[in-house]
Write a structure and sequence with these properties.
This protein is of the alpha/beta class and 202 residues long. It has a single domain, classed as Rossmann fold (3-Layer(aba) Sandwich), CATH 3.40.50.880. The protein has six helices and 14 strands. The protein has helices at 12-21, 32-37, 49-58, 61-70, 80-84, 189-200; strands at 2-5, 26-29, 40-43, 74-78, 88-89, 96-97, 104-108, 119-124, 126-127, 142-147, 149-153, 159-165, 167-175, 178-181. It has an eight-stranded mixed sheet, with helices on both faces. A four-stranded mixed sheet has the order 6-5-7-11, with helices on one face. A two-stranded antiparallel ribbon has the order 8-10. Strand 1, helix 1 and strand 2 (26-29) form a beta-alpha-beta unit. The chain is globular.
Length: 202
């Protein structure tokens, strides 16, 4: 069973529907017992970083997510959910602490690139980790993004894939059982569904 964490933020239904479409049982839940008993756990999210962290604290999910990570259960953050896995975000002009499960920071795209911010639409990936969630995914595969802030991982080895949008940024991350995608695999066609399938089969 795949547990999709419900903490009042995010694209829960579309992620749940995607797993169902590819033949995996998943459940949207805020029950710590269900989450800790799951074989895989997904942390989705859209919206503001600070609000999301407040919701995680308010619902008691911060400690639950840490327990998931510590017991070695595969954990996938999607979009804002990926950003929350890292040390902090500067969204709102101040350093807002994240979960700190992976080392890195979230900062806003430069506004002087001559490109629209948020970065919205399809863009190609340069895949750095050829296994895990990117097993069998072809170089330069296109996926769907919607974000104004991007990840810079402290350890370049944690960058599972990068993307170029004015600057080159870390579009996905993975270290051991902790993984994340800045893009939305549930909205990224067959490529995204194969990434979710890879995660479900880890």
């Amino acid at each position: 069973m795949i547990a999709i964490i419900d903490y009042g933020v995010g694209n829960l239904a579309s992620v749940n529907k995607a797993f169902s479409f590819i033949g995996f049982d998943s459940v949207i839940t805020s029950d710590p017992e269900v989450i800790l008993a799951a074989n895989k756990v997904v942390l989705p999210g859209v919206g503001a970083f600070a609000d999301a962290m407040q919701n995680l604290e308010r619902t008691g999910m911060t400690s639950v997510i840490w327990k998931v990570a510590e017991k070695g259960t595969s954990l996938l953050g999607i979009c804002l959910g990926m950003q929350l896995l890292f040390d902090y975000s500067t969204e709102g002009g101040e350093k807002v602490p994240g979960l700190g499960l992976l080392k890195g920071s979230i900062t806003q795209f430069p506004l002087d690139m001559g490109l629209k911010v948020p970065h919205m639409g399809w863009n190609s990936l340069s895949i750095k980790q050829k296994d895990g969630i990117f097993k069998g995914i072809k170089e330069n595969s296109y996926v769907y993004f919607v974000h104004s802030y991007y990840l810079t991982a402290v350890d370049g080895a944690d960058a599972a894939a990068t993307c170029k949008y004015g600057i080159t940024f870390d579009a996905a991350a993975a270290r051991k059982n902790i993984m994340g995608t800045q893009f939305h695999p549930e909205k990224s066609g067959d490529v995204g569904l194969n990434i979710l399938k890879n995660f479900a089969e880890l």
